[in-house]
């Protein structure tokens, strides 16, 4: 007999010996013994006996049939385990589902415990949704007398309902396992509380709220805005019901074949997970509580928790309120806020201040009025002097108004998806607002118009002058034009920074955009991983960086970092469009058609005339100023180099890979680091030797880059033939000899502005000075470049002109003097500072 026949015989035997091996139902005549299984018709879920850990306790549960990892989603007898393998699950003669030890008399362990529904034929069946149902005669929803979905354990599956039944006052909710090894009911629950003005969803630790997911706001639960943000939206839809019968929520899956679940784990965290067939693992793409701001009432009364704020545990008082401790809390524990003394909010010209982007405050003690728009809602609140705030939400089908009278509790800020809270404040607070608004709405446009007019007029005048004195004075017009442009650019940058939006892309979107990371789409290999070109559905070109270095951060921290970094927007920074954390970490950038600056200055030199080079140098300087001084975060780039500067279609430079040091530098938030990231040739001596970094180490790298732009040569290229060690040494030699222009790129010929180039060389040398303390800042560099300020001091000896120090000991005799490794004590600026 051959192997195929053997196999066939084996299966036939199996069928004979174990008649219920691949069936989905349990009948009165066919009980289920330990070791037997039910499998749902579509082979999605399996029901059977299982144990966890070392206890040997046996449970009846449901898990995914096909997954390599046994993921239990439901347990029948979680609090009544069997102690050996002689358990039997049956439908008894009264139509009850019963779990007992076999033998006579049978010892009952667990049962469906329903009131008898009269005689008939009862059976139980495992469905493809994971629901285990007990029904009479033929299965249908109407004939169902009991179902596992009505008794959830720790997992919220698609099509399952979390529900408060208004008639029976029964609450169906999730209860965590005691531990990963023990399915018994744990201390955490995820459930509706309907005692307040509107139903709210909570995670409780016993009876203490841990997280308030809040009331429904029309789109989602107000405390879980990220929950609906893609990729969740791609795959599921969340629903909410509030009618005469019930308050309930459930979700459905839009992607066929996707295994997805929501679980409350034994540590009190909720997780949304999707099964990743490639890695054969569950990917968590959302967890809560997410940071301290999610902790229930973390900041106390009348305060707002801002996850971006680093001090005071993110807490700040709402407008018109002040720290209860008077701002001098010795314990560093934020104790909530009280209204500022002297504020008159009762018939004294008070009004409402908008607090946008927040979570609906705890509405337990609020009042609810259906069908009131915001105008009527405000009026309603104003009528009662004890009303402290109001807000409109779409709780059910209609819009309604919430008003608060007691403390406002559990308010937090969201980067997206929050709502507007209208806070009652006195007239002085309102006046502040009005002034601001007037400034923004009236004065700013007026100012801008005036400036525009001035610019236009001065340009016209300049043009006229130019025409008149055509060949006499070309330098003059150039200088002033430059400073006008830089002002306008700064203004535009400020405007652009307002519409920042960062997306969480789904892995499927990225895979589709890059044709599954096809080799033909690969643009190159950056310091942190390969970069691919992609095209989104709408036709937008993107660049996708797959991060090969795994950061030590968790997914949430990583995401927060990216959201922070995505807020940095400047015309000289590559724009970060979004990220993907579904299967691996990826960053999605705007796509730039031109290659890196290195390609142009070292290879295709002829493209770059002096004017373009100069503009590129000033553009990079502006981008660096923004990173160092102008943005909300202080970012030290740490790897500024020619290949990290990309050029757009009009040769406008854009710095890339900024913020990478921040994402991957969680162990390096001090002023020193053990792991030196950076590129040989661009690293400052204090950084390369001792791991000390600061904005001045970026200035050093900028100086190297500037000298490279002028000379068209790599700092690390060999200069031995000319008796110098590297570009810096070469420039320094020529500088000392009084012949700096000898270093200028030969391909420029004579077509450059001598004084401008000399100034740039001077600035470059100032930047690469050995002592960090005397290097200029990036803003000083920019103003020197634009000739607003002349380089006052002569440069001192640069670092790294002796090869012995560059190679960390690989000695090569060299005529240049000085070893560039003295410790610099003045450098203590940390890499990141919240602003
Ligand atoms: C299993 O345990 C139950 C309860 O302790 C006991 O009644 C039964 O005899 C045991 N069965 C076997 C096979 O050990
Ligand atoms: C139960 O089912 C059996 C076999 O399917 C049938 O003979 C019997 O009449 C049914 N009894 C009732 C009460 O429906
Ligand atoms: C609902 O919330 C109220 C107020 O916080 C609390 O007293 C009550 O115990 C909660 N009910 C449930 C079922 O958790
Ligand atoms: C509430 O519903 C209205 C219209 O139905 C919609 O315009 C508004 O954006 C919704 N608000 C929220 C917070 O969902």
From TrEMBL:
E.C. number: 2.7.11.1
Q: Single GO molecular-function term?
A: protein serine/threonine kinase activity
Q: Where is the protein found, in the record's own terms?
A: Cell membrane
One GO cellular component term noted in the UniProt record for this chain: plasma membrane
Q: Name one GO biological process term.
A: recognition of pollen
Where does the Apple domain lie?
Answer: 346-427
Please write the reaction equations for the catalytic activity of this protein: L-seryl-[protein] + ATP = O-phospho-L-seryl-[protein] + ADP + H(+); L-threonyl-[protein] + ATP = O-phospho-L-threonyl-[protein] + ADP + H(+)
Q: Which family does it belong to?
A: Belongs to the protein kinase superfamily. Ser/Thr protein kinase family.
| Boundaries of every Protein kinase domain copy | 517-800
Instruction: Report the residue ranges that make up the Bulb-type lectin domain in this protein.
Output: 23-147
- Coiled coil, from the record: none
**Segments passing through the bilayer:** 442-462
One of its Pfam families is: PAN_2
- Main localisation, per the record? membrane
The name on file for this protein is Receptor-like serine/threonine-protein kinase
Q: Does the keyword Kinase apply?
A: yes
> What's its top-level EC category?
transferase
Give the top-rank taxon of the lineage listed in the UniProt record for this protein: Eukaryota
Keyword terms of this UniProt record? ATP-binding, Cell membrane, Disulfide bond, Glycoprotein, Kinase, Membrane, Nucleotide-binding, Serine/threonine-protein kinase, Signal, Transferase, Transmembrane, Transmembrane helix
